[in-house]
From TrEMBL:
Single GO molecular function: hydrolase activity, acting on carbon-nitrogen (but not peptide) bonds
Organism: Pelagirhabdus alkalitolerans
Region feature Disordered, mapped onto this chain: 18-61
Keywords: Signal
Keyword Signal belongs to the record: yes
UniProt cross-references to Pfam families, sorted A to Z: Polysacc_deac_1
Record-annotated NodB homology domain positions: 96-298
BP terms from Gene Ontology: carbohydrate metabolic process
Signal peptide segment: 1-17
Chain intervals with Acidic residues compositional bias: 19-61
Protein name: Peptidoglycan/xylan/chitin deacetylase, PgdA/CDA1 family
InterPro entries linked: Glyco_hydro/deAcase_b/a-brl, NODB_dom, Polysacc_deacetylase_ArnD
């Protein structure tokens, strides 16, 4: 049974990871072919006909969890860090574009940087927002408004905002997840929450603190997501002052991915971003969501 589910999952995810090939896969045709011969005869066999495809559709939460545990329980990580193999840090392009990414981390009250987001909206600056489940639960109406705005692409920033480890490694004093099962929950609970609230399934994941081990990165991939960090540290967790943030913008290059926060309204982030965005515009840069360059993320 597990092998069958794994095969189904691999098939489903192979499709997700390789959008260009989707049109050439024959899944729907195969199903039609089987039915064609017997269309007229099978009027009485409707029950059988309908049961098969439904059963093979998508594994549910518990089934997926079992698949992940089975596949990764014996894996030993060899890397730990922010920018390890398999984690995207830039766009491979000569186009004069940069991607601004904003994390929404904790779910305490008053953690929405409205000035920052209103600036992006007024200036029509597209961005990718990595949102943690606790932040969503505290700011649900704001979250759904942001998700409905086509300027913003919603990405997954974890359920409990933990570093992503299969062995309980920690970063910045925060203990990470401790097993493949916990890695799965950290990713997938928020994935489900976002999908329920927006009707869209995120393509990108960033762990709380942006730390991963290499096994956890493989689990992210197995769940159809891409782990994304950055190559320009925009605000250092909200600790940069305005001048430091503007300096970060000065290091922009074609394809840079910036990391900022949208949950620190009392910081200098909005002031720095307002000045930095204007500077890059003057230099001729455009701002893009990660999804616009999905094939060139590296
Ligand atoms: Zn965060």
């Amino acid at each position: 049974m597990k092998l069958i589910l794994l095969a189904i999952m691999l098939f489903v995810f192979a499709g997700c990871a390789d959008n260009n090939d989707d049109q050439t896969t024959d899944e729907p045709e195969e199903i039609t072919d089987n039915d064609e011969n017997s269309d007229e005869i099978q009027d009485n066999d409707d029950e059988q006909d309908e049961a098969d495809p439904i059963e093979e559709s998508e594994p549910d939460y518990d089934q997926l969890k079992e698949i992940i545990i089975e596949e990764f329980e014996d894996a030993t990580p060899t890397e730990w860090g922010e920018n390890i193999d398999g984690v995207v840090t830039e766009i491979d392009t000569d186009d004069k574009v940069v991607s601004l990414t904003f994390d929404a981390c904790d779910g305490t009250p008053d953690t929405y940087d409205e000035e920052l987001i209103e600036f992006l909206i007024e200036e029509e600056i597209p961005a990718t927002l990595f949102i943690n489940a606790q932040w969503i639960e505290e700011h649900e109406e704001i979250f759904t408004d942001l998700a409905e705005n086509p300027l913003f692409e919603i990405a997954n920033h974890g359920h409990d905002h933990k570093p992503l480890s299969v062995t309980g490694e920690s970063a910045y004093g925060i203990t990470g997840t401790e097993s493949p099962e916990e890695v799965f929950s950290e990713i997938y609970k928020n994935q489900q929450l976002i999908t329920e609230l927006t009707g869209e399934t995120p393509d990108y994941f960033r762990s709380g603190t942006a730390y991963y081990d290499d096994v956890a990165v493989e689990i992210v991939k197995s769940l159809g997501l891409t782990a994304v960090n950055y190559n320009v540290l925009g605000d250092a967790g909200g600790t940069f002052d305005k001048n430091q943030i503007v300096s970060a913008f000065e290091s922009a290059q074609e394809g840079s991915i910036f990391l900022f926060h949208m949950n620190e309204p009392d910081s200098d982030i909005s002031d720095g971003v307002i000045e930095g965005v204007q500077m890059l515009k003057d230099q001729g840069y455009d701002f893009v969501q990660l999804g616009e360059y999905d094939e060139q993320l590296k």
